[in-house]
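Hi there. Long-time user, first ticket. I'm pasting a complex I've been working with (about 975 residues overall). I'd like to know whether the download I got is complete or cut off, because the file seemed smaller than I expected. Thanks.
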Amino acid sequence: MATRPVSEKELIARFGPHLNQAPPGGWNAGLEIDREVDTHCCFCGQQCGIRLKVRDNEVVGFEPRYDFPFNEGKLCPKGVKRYLQGSHPDRLLDPVERDPSAPGGFRPVDWEHAMSRTTSEIQRIQGAYGKDSFAVLSGVSLTNEKSYLMGKFARLGLQTANLDYNGRLCMVSAGVANKRALGIDRASNPWSDIPLADVIFVAGANVAECAPITTMYIWRARDRGAKLIVADPRVTPLARTADVFLGLRPGTDSALMGTILNVLVQNDWVDHEFIEQHTVRFEEAIEAVSGYTPEWGAEVTGVPADRIVEAARLWGTSATGMLLHARGIEHHTKGVENVWSCINLGLATGKYGKPGCGVTTITGQGNGQGGREQGHKCDQLPGNRDIENPDHRAAVAEVWGCDVDEIPGKGLTAQEIVDAIHDGEIKGLLSICFNPLVSLPDTKHTAEALEKLEYYVAVDFFLNETAQYADVVLAGSLHEEDEGTTTSVEGRTIKINAAIDPPGNARRDWEIIIELAERLGRGKYFPFRSTKEIFDELRAASHGGTADYYGMTWERIEEEQGIFWPCPQEGHPGTPRLYEGGRFYTEDGRARFTPVEFRPPAEVVDDEYPTWLTTGRVISQYLSGTQTRRIGPLVEQYPEPLCEMHPRLAEQLGVETGDFVTVTSRRGSMRLPARVVATIRPDTVFIPYHWPGDRAANQLTNRALDPYSKIPEFKVSAVRVTKADGHVEVRDRRVHTLEEDHQGTSAGRRRSGLPPLLQTPTQGGETGR
Amino acid sequence: MKPFAGDQIFVMDHSRCIGCEACVQACEECGTHRGQSLIHLEYVDRDVATQTAPQVCMHCENPTCAQVCPADAIKQNEDGVVQSALKPRCIGCSNCVLACPFGVPKYFARADQMMKCDNCYDRTSVGLKPMCASVCPSQALWYGTEEEFAATRSGELVFEFRFGHQVVPTKVGVVVHDAGLGPVDVSGTGPAADWRDDPFGLESAS
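Hi, the file is complete. Here it is re-exported in full:
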């Protein structure tokens, strides 16, 4: 049975998060280095180039990589401090096994024991309950090679259908919408198209904090005179500079986009020739929004009608334009419909397939784009192929050298896997690169599910909060300890280079997985001796799929600073801009308009829960924080969640900045300091989600899923906010607290693992930072 | 205005700043002051807006910090870069901290010394960009030649500031977008600023 072996406090004392503050040896250890390694940042889909400095098999610093064309040396704070995830006191150096009598509840074991126990538990569970009773949860911070391997391992190694990944919490709504409307799931443009746009429409994307380098591309357009439209319930740092700000109510995105479509049609700001030649179903799409007047739109979204019309005018009358969207419109029970409503705006105005024209998602996770193409998504096989399509299955079976019937069918999605564990249908779990206890909605439900597992094995470099429930944790590798490729937000496949070897007895992830396959008697399908050999099979397996990597080689990828897929033949230059000449990837080459009628979110506010909650990110933390909550300077930047609220709401509650509030939803309740700012709608509160336990915003969020993409509705919940006891000093986003400021049971936990600098400045009497 | 070495200029465009603190994090990676971040980054008023303001040393032609230093510890090199207080001379009096019109120098009690932005002299003296301007995602902090600026960026450069009767010419420039319209508005650019007074349309709704 999977439970936490000891108290959370004891787990944290042994396994962290502790904070790395300075490079190995300290700031004054000197700058002599053995070598520099050109690679990329591991945080977020922008995949910025970075040069790591290495000494004695440790990463000791970085240098901007001015030669990489996407970021030309630029980095966000996560990239700057990325190197501090290495040489970390929390690093797992051996496999560990649950043992309540050991310090921290886990004792180091040798690999033979960890692997043989894992193998026999897998065989026992699958023998007793069937193959599909053992599930895999994977993640897209993994390289393409590891993503491909995880897909093949689940299907042929474990022979389970139930494999899914944390991309399910990221860009899947955009993936489904793009595939159905445009025939392909990739960013429409290279980012170099953004500066060529005359109007930029950012919808539900906190670009400045979640895709910081994209800010520079938007500013280049604005230097040319481009107009900026931003739709967001908060005045984000980028929104501050917008020409038109659409401060919409959470969950009303498709109403806003539908109204804009109607205004475009009413004013004839549409491209009839493009619609005629390159699309279908325009009439149905405009019929669906024919009643969406600006006044109706204003009523539903809360955005003044004249601003909606002005946004439509700018979008419809500009010769070129790009619409960038992200989780803000995608994390909804109608995430796919929201994306379709954006695609409709691009198609209606002919803004596809030309320089400075496109509608694209901003993929969030490190290898969010590439990871989903290589077949470690429950419904996909390599090359972005459909696991239920007989031709697609046959093509992959041929490369894999297996009978087509050996490939399982479509399995459950990530949230559904956890639900099935909760229901007792799935009994065993292998997780890698996924921390669902922090990142899935309804934390209490996730914890209950984990406790029902008969066997849980995690592969990780740190003991993340979910892995605390594991029976065995296999010590895997950090990004800089292995080589491979990823595919960035632009659809550009790039080379990740190993800077160092895994420390101690930790092993590279792919070596662990292959050994497990061998022990399960399935080694014949996993003959790989290097990640390059995995890539070579990946190329072949993707050939003929939409995400075709066949023409790429590692050498070319490095030489050309990345290659954009599709790249179907050797010597093919790659495809930076999709849809040129109005040719889409559908069977008839035409794009599909989709009729989108507005419908409300799964949960709406009422007398009992009268305030909207929306969740999101801060710039200094990445996803569930497994890495970034262990890097001191990043933690200092935004140490713990704050509840952002408007002065009008704060006044009703009698709350000032720093006062604690209790936020309660139908799922749970949390207590945290308020930050009173006029940059959020008065009917909405915002809480960032990167923290575990009693600081987890996902204690409150709703497990309701989009019917197509199965993405949870992180962006809309109904909550009740009340004033609680306690006050802390909040300066800007930093929280300055003493332990006694936190009352109740959370006191010790909140502060443990945080650095002394939160209580006293690092430098006595320092006047700055 | 005379450029730094190699005809390079350093400019700040506050309207582009997204407050990400990449500059703050990167500053302490600089070889001349490892572990000490010397750049300043502040919210103007977080209660009402997300506008932030970075501040590097302006490298004044006739630096006030040096003028008020009783120990003659603050030196300019031949490129015009104003250096941190010389350790053997600095008496830790903080005159410079109080006198600098831009609020740049920082006093570090543990070292009993003033340190300040030195334009990443270890980098710029060998042809590299300063750390902050290298990493700045929005390029609110920018380093290049005047010709590159004119060709690729909007706004006009200001290299002279007035504090009461004191006129302060600087080597670092500030970008303004409506030069000649009086006091500089750092809240953003563009004419369509009306919404900023009422981002959520509350006044029209109530």
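A couple of notes from our side: Residues 188-192 of chain B have pLDDT under 50 and may be disordered. Chain B touches chain A through 59 residues (CB under 8 Å).
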